[in-house]
Amino acid sequence: MIMEAKTTFESFTPVKWAAPRQLKNTTFVPQTRGSWDANSVIVFFDLVVYIEGLIGVPDPPTLISDSLKSSSLRLSWEGSALPLPYLVFTVQRRVFSRTSQWETIPSSSQQPLNTTTFTVQTLKPYTEYQFRIGWILANDFPPYYSRESNPIETLPKGLPNPPEITSIQPISNTSVSVTWLPPSQPNGRLIAYILKLRKLPDGHIIIKEIPISQNPRGYTFTGLQPITNYSLEISAQNVEGEGGTAVVNFVTPQSSMSNDISQKPEPKLLLQGIRDVYVQHLDLLLDPDVYVYNSSQNISAIACHYKYKWVFIATSEGDIIRTGLINNQNLLILRKDRLDLPVVSFLAVDWLHNQLYIVGKKRQSSNWSIKRCDLNGNNLITIYPYLFEKPIDFAADPYTGYLYWVSPSSSTQPNRGGGGLFKLDLNSDEFVNGPYPIPVIEGQDLGPFIVDSINYRILIVHKSRNTVLAVSLDGDITDIRRNTQSPQFENALSIAWYSGIFYWTTGQSVVIEEYNADQDSYYQNLYDVAKVHQPCTRLMVVHPDLQPIPIPMAPPQRVQVIYGQTRARVSWRPPPVISGLGTFINLFVPIDEFHLFRPFQLLLLP
Fold first, then answer.
1. What is the CATH classification number for the domain harbouring 297?
2. Most buried pick, 442, 458, 470, 565, via CB within 10 A?
3. pLDDT value at position 603?
């Protein structure tokens, strides 16, 4: 049959297209040129199909050694073992991607190739390509393609293109979040992104360099001035240097919060004693303590929901009780047999979505677990069951969208690593195979912390350095108490923060800062805890500013209006997702408090 095929190809040049059919027992007798009839064309096409079956799927092209450059390379491939005198080739390429389309590379003569090597030009540096060869068995017949090659990456050369800024939006009057996409042409291995923020018109430049190892796609600038013009430049850096710059200008909004102190309630300290919970003035010398709860059992954890004026209390027996911050009406919301955590160490309230988080030791296990229920103790589920040691501290913050905790530095595996500060997206449901905690700070001698929600940062005690660090959600770390005289942070069990001043307990004492403006220094005043309360293991400031309600600073997107004679339909979408915050805050903030409306609403026109 091979000889028959050879005779056919040597005798005829096909010029027509015909529908394929199976070649069975048809005998094709060679004819002279120019004497084609319809049946001959059909039979010839069947012969082509038969030959394709003999060839099989051709092997992919391969890279010729030492031909790879930043913008070109040379390919070779095996031809046919069959004598096919009219066989020619085309070469196709595509960027290595599931969505990329194949494109045919024209030869210098603009004609198919009759050789089995080809030089590919005009490639992009540091880019992966795939190639395949089209076999053309006869004129006017579609190419018969080989298998695609393995990805081939061109050599790096040149500086990267600018990143693409996808959004920039305020998240408060002093904070702005920016997101971006990587350069379309990095031209080499990226090392870092460089962000340059400048106050217009002639302010100093703040430079932030983010290593590519952090896989950054966004960043949040804090500490800005309200109603102020800024310019932001973003560039990428590869091994050859810093590339082109993307620039965007923006204006921070005015404050949406009232500055009238007279309208705000007075802050109070809520303290956890050994068998009681009590409230005191921030100046411990002014008012006597007021009991919120007394118990015959030891108290292991407390939390407070300010809006509802509720305090949640965990007892040493493993029960969870809810009482009023003012009226002291006690209600057992979770019994120990249902909670199934013999030891409860931490409670935390999600004040936006009305959830209670519980951290406790699992029964007949050395692990600790995070559970969640509503404020009535219903809908109890396990969020994360793999804390290998008791955390040093724990908090829930729906404003930033995360759970936070500190694992001891001696911890062997809080999440495939050592101790440190970790966060877990509040949008984590009942744990199956993830998500896993994200390390914020790893492997340091950390102590208790509080979340400064409004400023999108965590304020955390560093025990061995005897100071407090401010840690942004992007991982920036600043020592904010270098100017403290005789610091006493190393023994803190629990820490609170209000209006720039820290409060903490050592068990036997409560320590309060005092700021001396003339010396720009902090001093610390120590107050002994009454014996009846010792040890005082936890304290917090109760005030609405510490459980803030987020207000959208960015406008809604894709606003559309369709008018009728007496009505109009208005549609819109929520503001863009804020980079660096948990998805829970971006997706599930209550409508009545976040001032978002339903996607469609009818308006009556006058």
1. 2.120.10.30
2. 458
3. 43
| Average pLDDT of span 86-108 | 89
Contact 484, 467 (CB under 8 A): yes
Provide the whole-model pTM: 0.71
Which of 122, 153, 184 is the endpoint of a domain? 153
Residues 45 and 178 in one domain: no
- The whole domain housing 111 covers 62-153
Q: Is 558 exposed, middle or buried (0-12, 13-18, 19+ CB in 10 A)?
A: exposed
Kindly list the strands in the beta sheet with 420-425, ordered across the sheet, starting from the edge strand earlier in the chain.
Answer: 393-397, 402-407, 420-425, 438-442
Nearest to 589 by CA among 382, 351, 363, 386: 351
Is the pLDDT score of 206 beyond 80?
yes
Helices (H), 319-442: 336-339
The CATH number linked to 212 is 2.60.40.10
- pLDDT score at 26: 36
Question: How many domains is the chain partitioned into structurally?
Answer: 5
Same-domain pairing of 328 and 198: no
Please tell me what DSSP assigns to residue 100.
P
pLDDT for the residue 302 = 97
Least Cα distance to 155 among 72, 36, 228, 221 occurs for: 72
Does 159 reside within a domain? Answer: no
